Every structure is written in structure tokens, then in C-alpha cells.
């Protein structure tokens, strides 16, 4: 039985991994482990199709260790015992344990001593946040690395590699993938390389050759094979981002009808991830402190949309869009944090006052750390006049409150009152 293209194209060594340069690039943590052959157990977490299994496979290939793959949800303790016995007989084994967040306590208790002995190098893979979903006993024995969504360029690179590879890819087939079809395939899969390669293989294997023997993969064919429509058949590939831009600007401009129109385009394209990401950004960037409850309601709407999926997801999303459009607006929070970041990037900051520094270690008092700190809860109204910014920027004011909503009006009054109370009289 022919294995799927995504499986066949799995990297054999760490240099072949697409993306994840923050982990496997020169000088980065996993590359250092591989180069030094000093591997430790780890948990890789991130969205589906972003390379968690590929990293594990490439580590094994680069280090020449035996590689075994199990699923914590479906494979039994007996399967784990087989891997451990192999490690005892032949040396270190790298074990990829998918869905590690579903590892039961009996399986965990069996694995722990073998992780500590180093016979098993565990690479756990999960789409769940390991700090929440994985037992502390496992977490304490592993390093945790976030695997980030692949960029469109990463996915394009992998697709072109698969089209050229004659051994494991589709290089032996006379395929021509049109530019707009390639663009759609890289974009619509949202960084899920597995989905992109599966869609490409289905298109290639199900499209009959033309009279000259060419397998021509057009945008229409790719749309059908990935079940996602292109927003517009544009040559420059800008339509996708144009719609998203118009979507955010319509909400910022309080035009509910325009915002619903542009979201409808995204819904028709099946682009739920872009809608969800953009709504969350808008809620905090454009509405912000003028109406924090609208942001909280947006989070709830996006969570509901993710759980029920399209087409029903359109309902909570429409509620959120109308809510955000008709809400008061304020960008004071993003302006404030960007202003603070600008100062940091310019090097425009000073030393932290000694009385604010950590004083929880032996000898801290000898260094004057924490000495003179005024604990606000010891004072009336749980507040005391005290300088918190470094001397160099002690008069910096990043937050400039607005009055576009009742909540931020109240914040402004309190903010100005506290600021005035800090001024020496």
C-alpha cells in the first residue's frame, strides 16, 4: 500500500526540516542537541501539520538512533514495553509519543524510570498546551518547545520539493502546477503542511493527463481537492489580504454592513482561522479599553466558532462582528505598549531602582536590594507614593487615555488621579 505523500516526504535529517528555525536553525537548541548528540526528552506542541513528527523523525535520522512512534491514546502499555525492551537490548531509542496529553497514569509510571535512565528519549507531540494538559511528572522530565505554524513560504518550499523529488515525491509525474493554484495551496491550508501535501497528491493522482501527457493542476482543481475556494482569481495574490484588511478597517470604522460583507467572503472561502485571528486582534487593538467586555464576548464567540465549525460558526461570528462594529473604540492600549517598546528598542531606559529589585536570596540586603521598598498594602487605600520607573525615564507617560467609552472614562479619572498624587508637592 502506497503511503501518503506527507508521510513519504518526512525529513530524514534535521537539515531537511521546513520552518521551525527558532528550534533547528544553526545554533538553536534542538540543532545543538543533535550536533552534540546530547539529546534530552522533549514535548513539542503546536497546531496540526506543522512538523512535530518531522522534527522527531529528523532527530532520529541525524543521530542514527532507532526511532519508534506510538500514540498515547490508542497504543497500550504493552506497546511501550516492547519499545523499552528494544532499548535495553540495542541501546537508546527515540520514542515519538503522539497525543501525549492523553497518556494515562499507568503508562506514565512505566515510562518515567526509563526516561531518567536515558534509554528512552521521549519526544511527545501534542496540539494542547502542555503546561495545562500534561502531568507535572512528565513535564519535569522534559523540555517544552513550541512548534509554530508554517509560513506560506515554508509550505511553498515543501510543495516544490515534493514536485521535484523522484524517489519519495511526485517528481516522476509530468505535473504542471499553475502559479495561482500553488498560491492557493500554500495559503488556504494555513500552515498545515500535511493538508497541503495531501491536497496536492489527490489532485495529481486524480487528474487525467492531457493529450500531450501533461498533468495540469489548475486553481479550480486545487480548490476542489482542498475543499476551499479562492476569494478572487487574481494574478497578484493580493485578494486574500485585501479582504482581511477591508474586514478589519470596516469594523474599526463602525460599518456593520461592510464588515459582514467582507466576513461573508472569508466564510465562503472557508477561511475560519483568518476570521478568528482577526476578530481577536480587532477586539483588543481597536475596541480595547473603551469596552473590555466586548473583547471578552469576542473570545467567547471565537471559542464557540472553533468548537462548532462552519457553517454554524457564522452565527457567533456575526454576533461578534456586529458587537464590535457598534462598540465604542479606543486604541490607547496598543499605542501605550508600542510606545514603551520603542523606548526599549532605542535603549532609552535606565537601572531598576534598588528597592524594587528581587530581595529573596541570601545576601540581597548587603547589595541594598529591596531596601526601602514601601509595601502598598500597608498603607491607607492600599497605595503609597513611590517611584517605580528608572530615574532615566521617571517622567515617561506611555498610556494616553481616551474617553470613548464609560469604562475608559473611569480609567482616565483614576489614572490622572494617581499620576497627580505621585507628583512631589
UniProtKB/TrEMBL annotation:
Pfam families attached to this UniProt entry: AAA (PF00004), AAA_assoc_2 (PF16193), MgsA_C (PF12002)
Domain AAA+ ATPase: 38-150
GO molecular function, one term: DNA binding
Keywords associated with the record: ATP-binding, Nucleotide-binding
Family matches, as InterPro entries: AAA+_ATPase, AAA_assoc_2, AAA_ATPase_RarA/MGS1/WRNIP1, ATPase_AAA_core, DNA_pol3_clamp-load_cplx_C, MgsA_C, P-loop_NTPase
Organism domain of life: Bacteria
One Gene Ontology term from the biological process aspect of the record: DNA synthesis involved in DNA repair
Family: Belongs to the AAA ATPase family. RarA/MGS1/WRNIP1 subfamily.
Protein name as catalogued: Replication-associated recombination protein A
